[in-house]
Amino acid sequence: MSPAPQTRLLDKVRDKIRLKHYSIRTEEAYTSWIKRYILFHGKRHPKDMGKNEIEAYLTHLATRRNVAASTQNQAFSALLFLYNEVLEIDIDGEIKAFRAKKPVRLPTVMTVDETQRVLAAMTGQYLIMAQLLYGGGLRAIECLRLRVKDVDSGLNQIVVRDGKGQKDRITIFPDVAKEKLREHLAQRKALHESDLADDVGSVYLPNALAIKYKNADKEWGWQYVFPSSGLSVDPRSGIRRRHHLHEKTLNRAVYKARKLAGIIKPVTCHTFRHSFATHLLEAGYDIRTIQDLLGHKDVSTTMIYTHVLNKGGLAVRSPLDIHAQNPKSQ
């Protein structure tokens, strides 16, 4: 049986993505969208399609599938990558597909008391990770990808490598987490030495670093701070080694802690980051400092937290309360 027409093309897409050192998550997302695009148009080869077919597919996602704006944008980025980078075909003119409406929503933020209650319901390495999410404003994947060398208690800082937008930044290393993390790293080092003895002690490095530093993948400093409990085979290299914890395990731990703490509002890993920013604003820190700590490209992104400060209704008093205190004014 002959292979599906998109099989070889997807291999070319993967090769191009790896040549550009994109993450495995980007590779999986882009190849998935490209495959769905081909299937949507009856398995026609993309080189025989163009602007009109792209518009039709993106419109389908928005009107029939009701996807979020961010989802539609990811699909669009995948198709642009396919045409511009793989097929080397320029898509002339503006894509005029019906675009999904991007909702304007305020982030969910915990109070300081709620945050402490959730943290109190967590234990072990999940408590340490949650302390870093809240204490340093890290995204979940940034926390999980932390390397030993990037956690610096002496300089009181955490270096976030290759964050959103492929940017590095420096954020706070909370004092409260230091002792627990020190004990965790002692156990982590023993695990690494055991892995080395079993010849499975290497760790994934981005391609450029793996080439530049030949033996760095086995050095202690490059190991993940929060490793997986088991070994797995790297889908790209085929090497069996220990990766970092999966994001789902941290999400489950946060969900369980939220339930134990009796918090009604939805709490995810990202809620700690929202709370970090809001509580710093409440403490009087300036918006530009918080922007740098969060790694936002535009300060307007950080400004959203000025709307969720704990002042209720943008600090406006309800007329019901005003008249209740001044009944003669009625």
From TrEMBL:
All copies of domain Tyr recombinase, residue ranges: 105-318
**GO molecular-function annotation terms?**
DNA binding
**Domain named Core-binding (CB): which ranges?**
4-87
Task: Give GO terms for biological process.
Answer: DNA integration; DNA recombination
Q: Which Pfam families does the entry link to?
A: Phage_int_SAM_4, Phage_integrase
- Keywords noted in UniProt: DNA integration, DNA recombination, DNA-binding
Q: Which CDD domains does UniProt cross-reference here?
A: INT_IntI_C (cd01193)
Q: Does the keyword Hydrolase apply?
A: no
Report whether Oxidoreductase shows up as a keyword of the record: no
Instruction: Tell me which family the UniProt entry assigns to this protein.
Output: Belongs to the 'phage' integrase family.
Q: Which PANTHER family match?
A: PHAGE INTEGRASE-RELATED, PROPHAGE INTEGRASE INTD-RELATED
Q: What is this protein called?
A: Integron integrase
Organism the protein comes from: Desulfoluna spongiiphila
